[in-house]
Amino acid sequence: MLQSIRERAQGWIAWVIVVLIAIPFALWGIDSYFQGGGKTVVASVAGQDIARSDFERQLQNTRMMLREQLGAAYDPALIDDGDLRREVLESMIRDLLLLERSHQMGLRASNDEIRIAIMTNPAFQVDGRFGKEAYERTLSIQGLSPAQFEARLRQRLVGSQLERAVRASELVTEAELDEALRLLGQEREVRFLRIEAAELGSDEPFSEAEIAAYYDAHGARFEVPEQVKLEYLLLDEEAIAAAAPPPSDAELRQRYEAEQARFGEPERRVVRHILVAIPGDAEDGEAQARQAAESARERILAGEPFEDVARAVSVDAESAANGGLIGEIQAGLMDASFDAAAFELPQGEVSAPVRTPFGYHLILVDEIKSASVEPFEEVRDQLVAEAAEQQIEALYYDWAERLATMTYEAADTLAPAAEALGLEIQSSDWVPRTGGEGLLGHPRVISAAFSDEVVREGLNSELIEPERGRFQAIVLRVTDHRDATVHPLADVREEIVAALREERAQRAAVARADELIARLEQGASLEDVAGDWPVSASRTVGRNAPGLPDEVRALAFDLPRPGDDGASYGRVALLDGDVAVVAVTQVIDGTGEDLGPAQRVQEADALGGLIARGYFDQMLADMAARAEIERNLGDAGSGADE
Amino acid sequence: MAQYETDEEKVEAIKQWWKENGLAVAAGLVFGLVAVFGWRAWQDHQENRAQQASATFEQLLAVASRSDADAAAASQLTKRLHEDFGGTPYAALGSLVMARVALAGDDREAAKEALGQAIDEAPDPALADIAALRLARILIDEQDLEGADAILAGLDAGGAFAGEIAALRGDIAAARGDLEGARTAYREALASGASQAQLIEIKLANLPAAG
Fold it and tell me: Residue A276 is part of a domain; what is its CATH number?
């Protein structure tokens, strides 16, 4: 048989096969043989797959974004991972669907658009202009070739085009705008009467059956959350300061000596100078200048005032105008040779010519302000505080490391670590899952305290550092644990009776309110029916204006429009248990008359934006309903990450 | 295949076969290559055309986004999208944008015509629905309630746009003074997830009391 295969393989059939194999290579390249297969897929949208690796990367990016946005408030333990995964997947599905549909429809991004998008991206700009090198460098950091990046950009542009088209084409008719202005700018004239529930209550007792029914119906209210009693070691600044010896006087002295400059002011001198420049063109310029300086010095020694000579001779025009005055200097400000001469010179004496890069100077010291130093006793407290801070910084990380190691190695007790570090084992009262006081209320601490290893297995927690950047670490263990329970009926009986009383009073108030409304609707006025209850003054309010209780305002805008001379009435329970009877006597529609044409356009754009957003969301929903979408998130991997 | 005795016989047989079939084979090859390369050239051409259309449409978006949109320029660009790029989706998108520009310039007839065109040419049914909803809104604004009703009747009242359709039915009923009908329609709109829920609730609360 092999023989016949061999023979045929040399015949024309072989050639046909070779050609058939070659065609796909020629048309689609070798890539198509390596793509697909072996990838796990979390979702597929109209035949396009979302690979698990892409999904995980997107999830990671989202987490990083959350961390950046929330800053210190970010705590992975507080974000439901399952929800986050589903949200990220849904958003990826939406993006892919939009992209897929846009592509199928025939939407494309032109090369010009891509070029413009790249050229105007600030990340690729150097001094406000596009830089090819910056572009390539930025891409290589992201591990992308220009072709890959441009392909992605093309996708992004195509994906956004449909949305921009729907938004930019939204129109708002005059009638719609007028209606929106009329309704949103509406004001209503409102009065209300407060029926005080407390006055309508009675002391009549409740039957056991009623109490039991309330207890059964409000189970959640009488639940006691899961609780733990904790033992913990707290490593903080105080603990370190208490355990470490305070710095000795000798140490403090040493510190004081070493940092003398901080505790006083160095010597300062008020100086004048005369500058003679060295002519650059003359061969013996150096000597000439020196000569000129010497002769100026002699004029001063002969009795001419330094100031006058400075004005006449010095080439430093600014100081020359002031009689050569430079002002107050301290060592280090001027050229080294100038400094050396100026700080050697006795007051009132003219120096010999001093050579600096500028030329020859004659220097005169007007005044010497000697150095002053704060005495050791006065800065002692400051030194102690600084020493303590440095000590804490130096010791904290070492101690935290040791604390973590020791509580990990002896995982069922805190005692060895406490002894070795001189920390005191502190214990707490019951701490509920909702959080305790102070540090024991911190989400990181709570999530550690209620973790499985700590509660079920009785192990020490890991080292927890609640706030980044603070010298504070805690290791805890659970000494006692209570599952969530429900208070027995006997314990909460009084609470229930009080609640039932309140309910009964409010029911009575509601019934009374309904009676009053019936009379009001037959033509009685609020004052007629009010009796002793307070009636508010009439007020005209807008939808969001403050001043009325929220419940009253909400009801006032929910009541139907009153007839011409009438009013519409309703009742609403207030937060404090009372019931309000609300009357709307007039509705004043918004007119939009105070809007200029430009503002009108703005309002219309805002309204159009809202409408367009709704349309676009519904368009996506419509596309999703038509497309074949499979989700396969599974549970694999969830919880195992982070 | 039959066995051949000698090489000469083989050569002879091949020559014979080629004489009989050579033309057909060559024609087949040529035809195949032309088909393959023709197809690719056609695709490139289509891709190019779509990209040009996209660039033209972006110009139109830029014109339309100015507050004093130049209706003449927009109309010129829309015309070009229809004439030069008729087969692309950009013709319909251009009509959608043109409708807004025309309405802003108070040219209602042009706006309605553009929306009608967008409905006919829409590359996706959802876009046709959006164009139809907008057309109905313009008709309501003109008090052509019958016309608006007819357009809404042609839409799928059970799909993703159900809420929007019900909300417009509410507007139509309210304009006719049919308060009960308006109330029912607005409630239906809220129940099926209309996007402007807050505004619809306010409209509902502001219908005059029954009776």
Answer: 3.10.50.40
Judge: B123–A106 Cβ closer than 8 Å, yes or no: yes
Q: Residue A281 domain-assigned?
A: yes
- Please give the average per-residue pLDDT across B194-200, as a whole number: 89
Q: Which residues lie closer than 8 Å to B190 by C-beta, 6 or more apart? A: B163, B197, B200, B201, B204
**Is residue A417 predicted with pLDDT exceeding 70?**
yes
Q: Is residue A84 part of a domain?
A: no
Q: Is residue A98 part of a domain?
A: no
Cβ contact A169–B89 (<8 Å): no
Question: In which element (H, E) is residue A274 found?
Answer: strand A268-276
A477 and A499 housed in the same domain: no
> First CA to last CA across chain A, in angstroms?
60
Domain boundary (A540, A557, A588) is at A588
Tell me, yes or no, if A115 comes closer than 8 A to chain B by beta carbon.
no
Q: Write the pLDDT tens digit of every residue in A479-522.
A: 988 888 888 888 888 888 888 888 888 888 999 899 888 888 88
The answer to whether A473 and A464 have CB atoms below 8 angstroms apart is yes
A601 lies within 8 A of chain B by CB: yes
Min Cα–Cα distance to chain A from B174, Å: 12
Residue type, position A327, single letter: G
Closest chain A CA to residue B52: A110
Q: What is the 3-state secondary structure (H, E, C) of A163-222?
A: HHHHHHCCCCCHHHHHHHHHHHCCEEEEEEEEECHHHHCCCCCCCHHHHHHHHHHCHHHH
- Distance between CA atoms of residues A467 and A453, nearest Å: 22
Sequence-distant (≥ 6) Cβ neighbours of residue B136 within 8 angstroms: B148, B151, B152, B168
Q: Within a domain: residue A582?
A: yes
The whole-angstrom separation of Cα A416 and Cα A420 is 6
Measured distance CA(A3)–CA(B186) in Å, rounded: 83
In terms of domains, do A245 and A383 share one? yes
Distances (CA, A) of A609 to A327, A336, A615, A622: 67, 70, 10, 20
Residues A14 and A25 in one domain: yes
**Residues facing residue A190 across a β-bridge:** A539, A584
Q: Are A107 and B54 in contact (CB under 8 A)?
A: yes
Per residue, the 3-state secondary structure of A64-81, as one string, reads HHHHHHHHHHCCHHHCCH
Within this chain, do residues A384 and A479 fall inside the same structural domain, yes or no?
A: yes
What is the C-alpha separation between A482 and A485, in angstroms, rounded?
Answer: 8
* Cβ-based burial of B200 (10 A; exposed 0-12, middle 13-18, buried ≥19): buried
Residue-number span of the structural domain to which A432 is assigned: 227-249+377-483
Position A639 scores a pLDDT of 38
Task: Say what percent of chain A tops pLDDT 90.
Answer: 8
DSSP codes joined into one string, A426-493:
EEEEEEETT--SGGGGSHHHHHHHTSHHHHTS-PPPPPB-SSTTSSEEEEEEEEEEE--EE--HHHHH
Angle between helices A111-119 and B7-64 (to 10 degrees): 60
Say if strands A227-236 and A426-432 run parallel, antiparallel, or are unpaired. Answer: antiparallel
Per-residue DSSP letter, B208: B
- The domain boundary, picked from A427, A450, A483, lies at A483
For residues B136 and B146, what is the distance between their CA atoms, to the nearest angstrom?
10
Domain boundaries, chain B: 47-123
- Give the count of domains, chain A: 4
pTM, two decimals, is 0.62
> Quick check: A176 and B202 CB within 8 A?
no
